[in-house]
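Table S5 (text form). Sequence records supplied for joint modeling of the three-component complex.
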Amino acid sequence: MLSFDSVLSAIDTVGMVAFAISGALAAARQRMDVVGFVLIAVITGLGGGTLRDLLLGRLPLFWLRAPELLAIIAIAAVAVFVAAPRFRMGERLLVWADALGMALYAVLGAEIALLAGADPWAAMLLGVVTASFGGILRDVVCNEVPLLLTREIYLLAALAGAACFVSLRLTGVWRDHAVVAGMVVAFGIRAAAIRFGWSLPPYRER
Amino acid sequence: MLSFDSVLSAIDTVGMVAFAISGALAAARQRMDVVGFVLIAVITGLGGGTLRDLLLGRLPLFWLRAPELLAIIAIAAVAVFVAAPRFRMGERLLVWADALGMALYAVLGAEIALLAGADPWAAMLLGVVTASFGGILRDVVCNEVPLLLTREIYLLAALAGAACFVSLRLTGVWRDHAVVAGMVVAFGIRAAAIRFGWSLPPYRER
Amino acid sequence: MLSFDSVLSAIDTVGMVAFAISGALAAARQRMDVVGFVLIAVITGLGGGTLRDLLLGRLPLFWLRAPELLAIIAIAAVAVFVAAPRFRMGERLLVWADALGMALYAVLGAEIALLAGADPWAAMLLGVVTASFGGILRDVVCNEVPLLLTREIYLLAALAGAACFVSLRLTGVWRDHAVVAGMVVAFGIRAAAIRFGWSLPPYRER
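The corresponding structure-token record, covering 618 residues in total, follows.
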């Protein structure tokens, strides 16, 4: 029987791979070699969860004893190096996989923070951090202004999902229901933004 | 009665808000949306203290259970987004608030490091890190060369204040006196640099 | 009698100074003042080991009670500020000192990770991180695309050295022998790359 947690775990892997591939595509823009591809993919795929766990003091880090995560990311990075043109054709797919990963990471980041004793506001912040820090690191290391910060409704979707999850949990809603609700909110907002080209008004001189 | 610690606490909040506003102004230069404003303000306002506590192993982090800090920073960021032109008129004020915050953070950063068992030299370094890391992170994320590092007497003022505090503490001076002396040194040097346009000689080819 | 560990310790210092000097030379390119030189040198010299220990939860950090490390780095940075033209003549020397430091850091980083209970793959990754993170931080703060990631066989050499060390340890080889073998592999690959101008093929549109 397919359990709820095994579905979450599958989404988790999909999201991590989507993050790793987006890192490898950034490495391609910088004309790195294959080792650079792997390192940027690792940074992007594991960055958010690593910062979250450092801030919460959750040691040892989850990937220190999970060689399969490193292997999956390395394989994804090498695959992009070898077959990037085809991946670019699949960029549309990537955006959706990334959105799914973002939705899950925002909710699970908030949950882990709550369990570690953070207050609700800090939990929402950690949800956003978990969902976005990998992508921010990727862009900072590749010397670009992080796209997450300047474009599209990404942080806002993560924040809304984390806020929804935290609110439901605090009002006593069952954990699995709150996870689904938070993910639906985050993914829904992000999906609408992708589909209809929504973006928040940027700051403008007045 | 106004206690010494409540004055320090007020200065702490003023400094954090000054850092947050400087982050929001950097977000304005990058034309981010309002969520980006808040994230950069959070990074700038909490970055220095967070790195200090991570390096010293002081967990849980101070802001995990202090929602009022996050709220103050978010309000400051939104206020800049809405009313930035007026804030730019107030940029002069900001420089002074930032100098006050820097002076306090340099001294308190050194104190916390001493209490955590760091040796005096590491304590001075952590004072400088606490006072400057938020601003460095802000500029790195916004893809600019950190101004702190290239211009004006900022790091030097923080270093002098932290060194003064550490020296006085090691020679047995009462804590509150050492705090005031360290802050006066850091703020005084920075204030003179702002007022008279002082800067250290940059590196020059010879 | 010259012990094996005292030789390693000397190489460690040489590597740290090489990293610090490369940081100061980057500060020179950005026309920083002398305090900026010292800060960039500290970041470059201590960054890799600091991240490694944060990820592994090895606190208190090694440099919190080792003022002599900070002093050596600060002296190196000031020396570059004062006498950079001569250091540039010595850039060839620097590349070799950096290669030696990289080889040692890759092996020791992997060893420390193994001792802290990381699995073999995570240990290799931490070897690479320890050898490269200082240089990556240096370039990120100075707003350049990290050269390590885009050019030359650097990460690959660190990875090969760490992998060699980890494999030998897991097959029961005596520690000192494995350290020497790992360093020879890492240094040898890097030296050949420097000497013969080897590089991996960068990603190319096809």
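Note: The interface with chain B takes residues 54-57, 113, 116-122, 125, 128, 132, 136, 140, 143-146, 149-150, 155-156, 159, 199-206 of chain A (CB under 8 Å).
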